[in-house]
Write a structure and sequence with these properties.
eight-stranded parallel beta sheet, 13 helices, TIM Barrel, globular, 12 strands, 2 domains, 397 residues, single chain, alpha/beta
Length: 397
Amino acid sequence: MHLPRSSGVLLHPTSLPGGRLGDEARAFVDWLAEAGQSWWQVLPLGPPDDAGSPYKAQSAFACSTELLADPEARVTAEELEDFVARHPFWTGGWAAYAGPGALPGQVRFEREWDALREYARRRGVRLIGDLPIYVAEGGADHRERPELFQPGVVGGVPPDLFSRTGQLWGNPLYEWAALRATGYRWWTERFRRTFELVDVTRVDHFRGFVAYWAVRARALTARRGTWRRGPGRALFDAAQAELGELPVVAEDLGLITPPVERLRDELGLPGMRVLQFAFDGNPRNPHLPENHPEHAVAYTGTHDNDTAVGWARATGALDADEPHWALIELAFASRARVAIVPAQDVLGLGSEARLNTPGRAEGNWRWRLEPGQLTREHARRLRAIGEATGRVPARTR
C-alpha cells in the first residue's frame, strides 16, 4: 500500500459537538481542508457498549445509529431490500439480535455516512478507520456464530506500560481452527464491510494475529495467562485473494516480537510510531523520530494516550513552552509518510480531555469538542507546519 506524504487529525464522531454526524461533521471536514489535512481518522463505528467503548461493539458489521443526525428519516421498502441484498452475510444476524428497526437504522447510517464521505472526498479528505481484532462477549457476532469462538477464555494483554496487572478486555477469543476451515470467510466479510466505510483502516492489536494472550474467563486481572498462536498471514492472504490489496495500517504497539515485525513486513503494512513512547533514553527506541521508517504512520499520541500537554506535565519529557506544538512539529517532520494528531493536541488541552485510559472501566469516551473550538488560527498554524514539512498536497497550497 502506497501512502503519500500527508497528515491528518484523529477525532471520533462521538467527540464532535453534539456527538453526531450532520452539520458539525461537515464543518470538521471543512476545517481539515482549511488546515491542509488529507486524513480524518476515526475509531470503530460499531454500536458501543454501555460504557461507550467502540472496541466492545455489539456488532463487527453494523454501525452505531447513535451517530445519526436524523434518526427518524424515512426508509423505503426498496432501500431496505437493496441494503439486505448487498449485505447478506450479516444483516439477518443483526436483525435477530437488535430487533425491529435495526436494519432501517443501518440504511440511515449508510445514507448519512456515504454523503459525508463524498463531501470529504470533494474537499480532499479521506477516512482512516479502526478495526478491533475482537468482538464483544454476547454481541451479535458471538451469539450468531458461537462455533467461531473459544469457550472458557477471554482476551487481554499481560502487564505493560498502561497497567501493572495487564489489561483484561474480556472479549471472546477466536477458534482459529474453525475459522481456517471456512477459509477465513468471516474475516474476509469483515474487511469487505470495513472498506465500504473507510479508505484505509488501522487493524487494532495486530500482534494478536501472531500470538495472543488468553486469560481464564473468571480471572480478575490479566496478569496470568498464556500465549497462543494466531493464524499468521493465512487470514490476510485469504482476504486479499478475494478483495485485492488491503489498505491496512498495523497497530504494532505493545510487546512486539520479531515474528510480529516479520508478518507486518511480509504483508507490506505500515506500522505505527507514537512519540509519547519515544523519550526513554534508549537511542534505539523505534518511536524516536530519527528511527522512524518511511513506511509508517507517526502519532503524537493515540486514543489510549494522555494528551500531549497532560503527558508533558506528568513526565517532564519535553521542555517546551507549547509541548503540544513541539510534538506536532516532531511528528510532521518525521520520515513516516503519514502523521496523525489527535484533535486534543491541536487544541493544547490537558489530561481532562483524555479520551480513554486503558485498564479503567469507567469515565472514558466522554470528551467532546465545543462548537467553534477548532479555530481558523489552529488551521493556519497546522497548515503552516504541514507545508514546511511537505505534507500539504500541492493542489491545496
